[in-house]
Structures are given as C-alpha cells and as structure tokens.
Design a protein that fits this description.
Elements: E1 3-4, E2 8-10, E3 19-24, E4 33-38, E5 42-52, E6 75-87, E7 92-97, E8 103-108, E9 112-117, E10 122-128, E11 133-140, E12 145-151, E13 155-160, E14 169-172, E15 177-183, E16 186-191, E17 195-200, E18 213-216, E19 227-230, E20 236-240, E21 245-250, E22 277-280, E23 283-284, E24 289-290, E25 293-298, E26 305-309, E27 314-318, E28 323-328, E29 336-341, E30 347-352, E31 369-374, H1 377-380
Antiparallel strand pairs: 1-2, 2-31, 3-4, 4-5, 5-6, 7-8, 8-9, 9-10, 11-12, 12-13, 13-14, 15-16, 16-17, 17-18, 19-20, 20-21, 21-22, 23-24, 25-26, 26-27, 27-28, 29-30, 30-31
C-alpha cells in the first residue's frame, strides 16, 4: 500500500484530472462514503473500511516512553471499495449530498445540474444554466427542504427538492460568485473583488430572502474569495484567498450588523469581544512565496478547520488558540487542491493534482491522488476545549 507521509491511506483507483470537490455522505447509516469530482468530468464514489488501531504500548515503567493516547487514532483505514463512476462530460465544480439520504447533486462548469440517486441507481440532468455552477448546498429545517445553487452569473437560487423545475426564491448579487458556505441558518457568499454577503435563512418563513449585510473582506487587495466555511455555532466563518492568507470573521445572526467607520467593512467582533483576524497559512521557498489556498473546510463536530494549498500541504487549525494542530502532505509535496471532513469529524480526505499555477502550456505533470486519514484527538480537538 502506498502512503502519504508514510501513514495515510491512498485510494488506489486510477483517477483522471485534478479533483475540485471531495464530499462525504451526510447519511448517518453510511458516514464513510466519499465522493469526488474534478476537471475530467468524472464522479467517483467509494466506501471506506476501518479497523481498530493496534497500538503498541510500551510496557516499560518509564512513563515518558509510552505513547500519548491523544496522539493515537482509535481506528485506521484498511481499504476502500470503489462503488461507481459516472461521466458527466464536463468539469465538476461542486458536489452536495442530501442529508440523511443516498442522493447527490452535482454542478459543472458548463452549468449542468445533476441528481444522482444511488439507492435506485438513477442518474439525471435536472437543469442547465447559461453559466457554470460554482457551489451547491442543502438546507433543511421543519418547514423547508431546499437546494441552494450559486452560479458565476451572480445569482443565488433556492430550489424546492419536490419540484426543481423553477427556483422558489433567488437573489442577484451582481457579482461573480466564487464560494458559498452554509451552517444551519447562516448562509455566506464570497464573490469577486473580495465582496461578501450573508443571509439569515430563518427569515425564509416570512418570505424574506435578502442579505443581512454586504461588505468587503479583510483581505487588503480585494481578492476573490475562493473558498469559505462557516463555524458550527453560526457565529462566523473562515475564508481564504489566492495570496496564502486565512481570514477569521465573526458575526451575530440575532443582531443587526455593525460596520466600521467607512461603512465598507463589517465590525468583526464576537460575543466575547474577540476580534477577527487574518493570518498567513501557505507559503514556500523559505516562507517568501505566497501560495494560493485552494480550500478551507470546518470540522463541524470538533470546531477546528483545515486548509490546503499550492505549497503542497494541508494544515489543521485551532483558531481559538491561534495554533496549527497538524500539517500533512503527499510525498514530493504536489499541490493539494481539495480537502474535507467526514460528517463525524474523524476522517479527513485530501487530493493532490495539478493546480495549473505554472500554466496549461506545460501540460499535466502531477498524478491525481486522494488520501485519507483517521484523526487522533491531538489532530482534531481544540487545545482549549472550554473556549467555545
């Protein structure tokens, strides 16, 4: 078995072009189903098989020589089973599992919108847009069961899953949409020129779908927000840009947003008075060269988050203590283009491949691979768990 960093499991199936999306099942009966999609237009699906870790505990009386149990993952990945591959014919930008089902939505760069029902082996195109679909999200509460799409045309559309012939609501941002994230009722959208807006989806019950606020990001160069992920407590989100920086942002859905003096930037402070902040995350060549961060994903269970970038590394962060819990890479440090957590927060999946930072003219040079790791406590828990 080939391994990343000699410890992580690499899926052995032959893959095509660079992976853009990694998404785990949101069905608790099948938590370790992993889907992937990328530039070759192929949709892949695997099941992941685990076994209990056989940790060798040193029987020596010297306590300091014994392994720290927090640094040993209770399970390890032994193999994966390839379930199915669909060819969607054009590059896949987004995948979204419908919660508690075996249905998956996929969106492509050509604007094709697909539904795959794995339970009944049903596969269909349900919409076609004039512009590419950048993000797909699933929102569900006692009243609504909606799919949310964000397109390069700048329109956010809400679709009732029972009748997907026309959106039930939409909002035109008048900006190119590059990223979206959703946590419970908090929907955040990242756009061109560093513009961000957020919505309170509780207001859908009153027929209201308008942003609570539209503001500039804290990035200095008004860069597009390529990826973002909301925190599990709905009190904020992390977003990333191409110059290797992460921005931690706080907000409160229950109060009117406050702005800085120039009325362009949100007053970025949480309920405990903690100020939002920016930090450098992915650099190379002795830290002198900034690398694009391709994705950021929150661990919804443990409150930490991960980033991956063109420097060939993924990192897991605790923003409360402002520290890095883990750094990982493939052998040779090829760019890591996609990353995500399983729904229980225990497994991280990450993919490497060409990110075309050196241009298309040189041709494809890097093999596309996907690796998996079952995380130990020290790799997923906040350093100070009492800090919410």
């Amino acid at each position: 078995m080939n391994n990343a960093n000699f410890t992580d499991y690499i899926i052995g199936d032959k893959l095509g072009d660079t992976v853009n999306a990694l998404e785990f099942s949101q069905n608790q009966s099948k938590p370790y189903f992993l889907s992937a999609g990328g530039w070759d237009g192929k949709f892949y699906l695997w099941s992941i098989n685990l076994q209990q870790t056989q940790a060798k505990i040193n029987s020596s009386s010297n306590i300091s020589s014994k392994p720290n149990p927090d640094e040993i993952a209770p399970y390890e990945i032994v193999n994966t089973n390839h379930i199915i591959t669909y060819d969607l014919e054009d590059p896949i930008f987004s995948l979204c599992w419908k919660k508690n089902t075996n249905s998956i939505f996929a969106g492509t760069v050509e604007g094709n919108f697909y539904l795959m029902d794995l339970e009944n082996s049903r596969f269909q195109k349900i919409q076609n847009f004039d512009t590419g679909i950048r993000e797909i999200l699933h929102f569900q509460d006692e009243q609504f069961d909606l799919i949310i799409t964000g397109n390069y045309d700048g329109i956010i559309r809400l679709w009732d899953i029972r009748d997907i012939s026309a959106p039930v609501a939409q909002y035109d941002t008048n900006c190119t949409i590059y990223s979206m994230c959703l946590e419970n009722y908090l929907l955040v959208v990242g756009m061109h020129n560093g513009i961000i807006c957020y919505f309170n989806l509780q207001k859908l019950r009153q027929g209201f779908f308008q942003p609570e606020a539209i503001f500039e990001s804290n990035f200095s160069n008004m860069l597009p927000i390529y990826s973002m992920s909301a925190f599990s407590n709905m009190e904020g989100f992390a977003c990333v840009c191409m110059e290797g920086k992460v921005s931690i942002n706080f907000l409160d859905l229950n109060t009117a947003p406050k702005f800085m003096k120039d009325y362009k930037k949100l007053e970025n402070v949480n309920n405990q008075g903690t100020q939002g902040f920016i930090f450098r995350a992915h650099r190379r060549n002795d830290q002198s060269e900034s690398c694009m961060i391709h994705q950021v994903k929150s661990n919804k269970v443990y409150g930490t988050f991960a980033t991956c970038g063109g420097d060939g590394c993924y990192s897991i962060w605790d923003f409360v203590s402002r520290s890095r819990l883990k750094i990982g890479s493939f052998i040779g440090s090829p760019p890591i283009t996609a990353i995500n957590y399983s729904m229980d927060g225990n497994i991280i999946a990450y993919a490497c491949g060409d990110d075309w930072s050196e241009g298309h003219s040189l041709g494809k040079k890097i093999e596309t691979r996907i690796a998996l790791k079952f995380l130990s406590n020290s790799e997923k828990l906040k350093k100070h768990p009492d800090n919410k």
